[in-house]
Specification:
Elements (H helix, E strand, L loop, with lengths): L1 E14 L2 E15 L3 E8 L3 E8 L2 E6 L2 E6 L3 E8 L2 E15 L2 E10 L2 E12 L10 E2 L1
Antiparallel strand pairs: 1-2, 1-10, 2-3, 3-4, 4-5, 5-6, 7-8, 8-9, 8-11, 9-10
């Protein structure tokens, strides 16, 4: 099933002692089946953001780059930026999909060094998403 939903997107990226916070309210395309959920929207600053959840796997697309995450596992990733490609390791710590919130926490490493810890939340602004299953990861 596919629907358009107004959402509140929030993210916090912690890097050393710095925290980069971001948020917006936008229209998002939300599609889902019994095994897969997709949120896709245009961020006013960053362009297209797409989050695909399929079992323990999460795929995050920000503009030109897509990053793969897997629950409680390290995944080698190549992350394209305007300045070149970064080779890192991702680690998905948490992915919770509920009828009123999507919450993701992941870390990025360069070799063994923690580069950043990221928190993403998507909250539908209106109710009516009672079809979402509660996946606690």
């Amino acid at each position: 099933m596919k629907e358009m939903v107004k959402i509140r997107y929030q993210s916090v990226i912690s890097h050393e002692s710095e925290k980069i916070k971001d948020h917006c309210e936008v229209e998002a395309e939300h599609s889902y089946t019994l095994t897969k959920e997709v949120w896709s929207f245009i961020h006013p600053t960053h362009g297209k953001i797409e989050i695909v959840i399929c079992g323990d796997d999460v795929s995050l697309t920000y503009g030109i780059s897509t990053m793969k995450l897997r629950l409680n596992q390290s995944v080698d990733v190549s992350y394209a930026t305007l300045y070149g490609t970064l080779h890192m390791t991702s680690y998905l710590k948490k992915c919770i999909v509920q009828k009123d919130k999507l919450s993701i926490v992941y870390e990025l490493y360069d070799r063994q060094a923690l580069i950043s810890k990221s928190y993403l939340n998507i909250t539908p602004i209106h109710q009516g998403l009672n079809h979402l299953s509660e996946w606690h990861r």
